[in-house]
Amino acid sequence: MLISIEGIDGAGKNTLVSKIKEAMDQPVEVIAFPRYGESIHAQLAQKALYGKMGDLTDSAYAMATLFALDRLGAKDRLQQAKRADAVVLLDRYIASNAAYSAARLEDDAVMDWVYELEFETLGLPQADLQVYLDTAVGVASERAKARAHADASRERDRYERDGGLQERTAAAYRRLAERNWGGRWIATADADTIISAIKDLVGE
Asked: Taking Cα atoms as reference points, which of 179, 201, 204, 203 lies closest to residue 3?
């Protein structure tokens, strides 16, 4: 099954993924999006976020399309994962596109556009569970800053440096969870609660 871990920058998604892997009694695979190391679409989006693609980042729709095409490149792998016995953790998935796009445009209508683009037009599979790691924005921001300070390769990009965007994105994620957008959701900052919910789902 596919389980996506969602959250703003610095929310602690990588740490949570590691805890889930340790807690599970069966194989767990991890696919992290954007796939900067293997996808040209993700690489172009990354360049744009660091100001190397002109005014590309000015368009929320253009950026969302690049991130969607990155996921399209992993479609076969995702569909195979849905048919396999293993648990596959997605470090961000389609909901991230919906949340960040809605936050950038300050208009939730784009959530439906993302849904149509990724689930319907591109035919990407829905996750069996979407987890919103609801970390306080201030805490997440400090973590992102500390990470960038400790590792020069983790310099914060345009989205990460925009505190207002992070606030709006967090709020957008909560609205997605309330709507059960794209499937089943759980929203909490408590790792034990998340792990318990995942184990219950696997047990089902």
From this structure: 201
